[in-house]
Amino acid sequence: MHATIDFRKHLIEIEKLVPLWRECTPRILVVTDSLDYAPGNAFGLTQFVSTLAQCTIHGMTPVIVKASRHNDPNADVQGFSFTHSAHGLVKSRYDVAFLLGFDSGPTLPPPEVDAIARFMQAGGGVFATGDHASLGAALCSEIPRVRSMRFWTAGAPSMADDKRLTTNLPGDDDVYEFDDQADVHPQRLFANYRTESGGIGNPHPLLQLPPPAVGAIEVFPDHPHEGECRIPANLATKFTLDAQSLDEWPAALGGGGAVSPEMVGLTVSHGDAFPGKDAVVPRAFMAIVAYDGQRAGVGRVVTDATWHHFVNVNLDGSGSPRSGLQSPPGTDTAALQRIRQYYVNLATWLMPQTTRRCRRFPWLYLELKRYPLFEELDLPPLGEATGRELRQVGVQVSEALATRVPRWQVEELVADALEDGIGAEKGRALRSLGARSERLSASEIGLAALGALTIASVERLPELVKLRELDPHAAFEPMAAEATRLGVRRYVESTRHELAQLDDLLHKVVQ
Prior knowledge:
Blueprint: E1 27-32, H1 46-54, E2 63-68, E3 96-100, H2 110-121, E4 125-129, H3 137-140, E5 187-188, E6 190-191, E7 219-220, E8 238-241, E9 244-247, E10 262-269, E11 283-291, E12 301-304, H4 334-349, H5 353-368, H6 373-376, H7 387-401, H8 407-422, H9 424-432, H10 442-459, H11 461-464, H12 472-510
Parallel strand pairs: 1-2, 1-3, 3-4, 4-12
Antiparallel strand pairs: 5-7, 6-10, 8-9, 10-11, 11-12
């Protein structure tokens, strides 16, 4: 037996160290044109923005910049341009951009489209939505990938005829009417349990719930005429950026074909007529489509059927005679709590991999101070730990985190540790093999890498408490690479040795 590391004495004031990672603070840009940020406006985005501003992403509160293409006095930036030198969209300034478009035209000038495309190519995450018909086309319809993940003009559903897409559920009176969009009855959302990003049998990360909840986010604000998302039929398209012709849907890193967007959630249009609206023939349509661009070395993208899933009138009844989804005012219903979790999931899942990797160190430190790790975790020195011990540390850390956040966030933490140890290409190749050998699966090796990363991070604590400034990437990425390589090597070597012994025994058995 070896001695354990006394990490607890250095965690007493760990919150004071979190500002050392200010470079890792999630930075979110919200852009709209004719929607606004006025609290009293039915089409205001204040409920959505306040949810993001009050959330934590891997233990850190994001910085939100509210931008208006027009002159909304409630915006942080008025007359926003994606190419502006001081506030434009570049990866060094923002991690995720939410684009909620209302205007139908004119579309963005090519230089602004190029700025968004560069951001995406650099790993930035993009969310985009409009509404029925061509609403939102001005802001979003020319953006690579985004343009093919939703109907922006041709094929977009109308707002008035019997082809409209309505998700309005009737209120307590069982009568269909326009104001039903603001009552306490949300629409039913059908989660796709067969996505690449979620894994078979799990909802996509965007619809996963934090513990102790089970199941998926299966409620959405309803509305009498929504837009529609789609999966592009052609994954061989290209776009031009900086005089280069680029694949719009690049191939997966480590081999394989083009990474395709996937349907995250499906909903159903149905309902009777009411003044100004025809009765409709029921049909299913895509409410959310997501593209995991990180599998192909670019940014992730999500499209949503309508910004009515985000504006005040559909969340709290602002501007409506109905009470809305809050009852009583100021208290979230169970449905609205889940809808807000979707917003947080969006911001978290769209984060670039580099930002996610940067944040994991303060995230780990904060978790070590909480129950059960603070009381129950024993950490052997990294130089003495066996592969089995490293895996056990990884298991304890991942199980503790999984009591607080949706499981997919923990799985990404383990996957990132594995890629640190063996490289992105080998990590993806190993995951593609599945669990052919349970002991040598990607997840088991990744847990050992996470255990080694945790111990190495703790061993840095004595020097951190003396620092006032820190370059997170320079200080921690080399350490992470070295520690995770060690964790992978020790776990694989010990497991191979045990399997060799088992093979020798089985050979003797059958002789």
